Amino acid sequence: MANNSKIILGIDPGTIIMGYGLIAVKGQQVTIVEMDVLKLNPQKDHYERLQLIHQRVNELIRKHKPVSCAIEAPFFGKNVQSMLKLGRAQGVAIASAMQAGVMVAEYSPKKVKQSITGNGSANKEQVWQMLQRILHFSEQPQYLDATDALAVAVCHHFQESSPFATTGKSKGWEKFLQQHPERLAK
Length: 186
Description:
Blueprint: E1 5-12, E2 17-26, E3 29-39, H1 46-64, E4 68-72, H2 80-99, E5 103-107, H3 109-117, H4 124-135, H5 144-161, H6 172-179
Parallel strand pairs: 1-4, 4-5
Antiparallel strand pairs: 1-2, 2-3
Binding site for Mg(2+) 2: 72
Main location: cytoplasm
EC number: 3.1.21.10
């Protein structure tokens, strides 16, 4: 990858199916690098599945060298045990990225859907169809968890490239004041 391009890793955490998608951003052009799922055997011990998530995230980081990792925040359901397991899977993915020195950002499912489709209540098929238009691809993956992960990466790109972006070393007002020191009261 050239110096003026960057890779973003998107993750849709799961303890049975973890979606992942990587995009390359070069200027205003965004392309798919890889999109797939890690399918985990539900018969395996939960801790073994967490280890496999850790390994896959590490492999993706070593192979593609992303500058950032965007991960979807778990939505709150009624089953507390499921939420705990999902939170652990998300935590393992986050820790893997951070240990590799990759910046991590988290987005709610509603934020991701709104960023991609303009509708925070869009379904998985609507997200996939809009991603096809944005990224110019035709295939539908076997699992929409892969396109969900791709959507998280694209959402992160949109948030970073927004004139109102608050990611990076300087944020919001802090960045504005750095750019306009004359506006500070003495």
